[in-house]
């Protein structure tokens, strides 16, 4: 029995344990190395190829039933990742997300049943103004997951930071998350307002949501 428990414990990614602890305690988590270097590299290579091949579209705000493009609010371009993709790097990415989901469902009873993810390119100078990820007409998005795919030489002075507007006991506490490659931010979609600041160079990410039915 003890042996079996050890096996189970062994298969859990220790990073995911800290994600869950952070989410339960603070409603958000920032994890360096959430995606390993090789995966970041293959996702970035794939993203850039598809971006050059013109597969991306201008991101809109709202969902399918009330979608509008407002460049004053967000200036990124996106490409949705197909759930049943056979693309190798996409499969590795979705497997990584699935590991987190399995563990989340086991420990937090969140009832995550679906995920949706898209690549995002923010051209130089583009941003996404402060917003909430849950829609008024659809509250299935539980957790938002932002994974950064930038080059290794990304510096804080390049900008592009994700700002999480945390609620402290004494008011709002903005938390700055620089978009270093492999780093992920996970937070409650219905609760945490956030924004993406403009960068002085092209900013790459893969962003998505863990959803209930
Ligand atoms: C979003 C979002 C952050 C990012 O797409 O809703 O907040 O860093 N994205 O891509
Ligand atoms: Mn968002």
Structure described in brief:
This protein has a single domain (13-63, 74-211), classed as q2cbj1_9rhob like domain (Jelly Rolls).
Give an account of the 3D structure.
It is a single chain. By secondary structure, the chain is an alpha+beta fold. It has one domain: Jelly Rolls. It contains 4 helices and 11 strands, in the order ααβαββαββββββββ. The protein has a 7-stranded antiparallel β-sheet with strand order 1-9-6-11-4-3-2. It has a 4-stranded antiparallel β-sheet with strand order 5-10-7-8, with no helix packed on it. Helix 3 packs across helix 4. The protein is globular and about 50 Å long. The N and C termini lie far apart (34 Å). Bound molecules: N-oxalylglycine and manganese (II) ion (MN).
Features:
binds manganese (II) ion; 30% strand; binds N-oxalylglycine; Jelly Rolls; 213 residues; alpha+beta; 7-stranded antiparallel β-sheet
């Amino acid at each position: 029995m003890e042996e079996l428990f050890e096996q189970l414990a062994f298969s859990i990614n220790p990073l995911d344990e800290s994600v869950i602890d952070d989410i339960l305690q603070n409603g958000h988590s920032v994890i360096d190395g959430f995606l390993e270097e090789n995966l970041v590299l293959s996702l970035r290579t794939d993203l850039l190829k598809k971006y050059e091949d013109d597969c991306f579209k201008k991101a809109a705000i709202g969902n399918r039933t009330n979608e509008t493009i407002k460049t004053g609010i967000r200036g990124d371009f996106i490409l949705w990742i197909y759930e049943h993709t056979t693309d190798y790097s996409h499969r590795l990415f979705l497997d990584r997300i699935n590991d987190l989901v399995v563990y989340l469902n086991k420990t937090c009873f969140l009832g995550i049943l679906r995920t949706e993810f898209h690549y995002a390119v923010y051209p130089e100078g583009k941003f996404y103004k402060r917003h909430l990820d849950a829609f008024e007409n659809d509250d299935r998005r539980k957790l938002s997951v932002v994974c950064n795919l930038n080059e290794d030489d990304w510096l804080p002075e390049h900008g592009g930071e994700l700002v999480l507007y945390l609620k402290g006991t004494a008011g709002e506490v903005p938390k700055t998350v620089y978009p270093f490659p492999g780093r992920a931010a996970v937070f409650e979609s219905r609760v945490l307002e956030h924004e993406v600041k403009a960068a002085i160079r092209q900013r790459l990410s893969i962003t998505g949501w863990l959803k209930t039915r």
